[in-house]
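Recap from last week: sequence in, structure out.
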Amino acid sequence: MKQNERECFSELESFSSWLEKHNKTENTIKTYKGVLHSFYKWMLLKNEYIDELSKEHLQAYIHHLEVEGKSASTIGKTLAAFSLFAHFIEKPSLVHGIEVRSSSNHKETMPEHLDHEEREKLLASVKKDGNLRDIAIVYILLHTGIRVSELCHLDRGDVIQDEIGSGLIVRGQKGEIKRTIPLSKEAGEHVNRYLSRIIRHQEALFLSNIGQRMTTRAVQYMLKKYDVNPHKLRHTFCYELVHKGVDLATVAQLAGHSDINVTKRYASLASANLKEAINRVFA
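Predicted structure tokens:
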């Protein structure tokens, strides 16, 4: 292994450890590590050295991905990985001003979400099936936007119930509090109904059918019969907040976005839909 390759490998491992210390999920660490690995390979092919990394290198790699026809989702993940890596090496200015070619096809570049009719159909279907656990899960994912991994880590004690209302405490992998999210009145009612039926000494908020803490795979499998996935419910939560005029900083805080540029995608989608409505009426 050449010296430059060894340096790249060592940097990747250090970056992974840094992400773990900052409470990033296992999937996020795997994704960002993969992004950096691909970027390092590209740098090595060009005989560029990581210790000489510049904004021009990052910009050139983004353009390389665009030329290869990579999806907006892939490019977005790359930018997010670059942003965190820049903070890791204490050079945040590396990502300032990086340009991404805009696309007029918002259906491909923006997160997929449920419209009003689809949301109502989903809620009606899960209520009809009558499983209090599944109803509570769908309402939490749809009305709080938490990640499925965060949902699975919820304990019964993370449900807040006081005179102000109900909410959820979202914790990191080591149990530290990351954020607190209020529950809507309707979501709170369904969570309370579910809580009234489970045994008092149950620690995990949601258990599988075999009595173990719910896994992300189990939640995904449950939602599959309703033709949705956790990501779509999270995107719906974020989009609806932005669409109803909630400021981006608040949406980012509720969703747990470490980079507000991630939140801005929903603002772009909302603007695109408004433009489409005007064109449909007056064109």
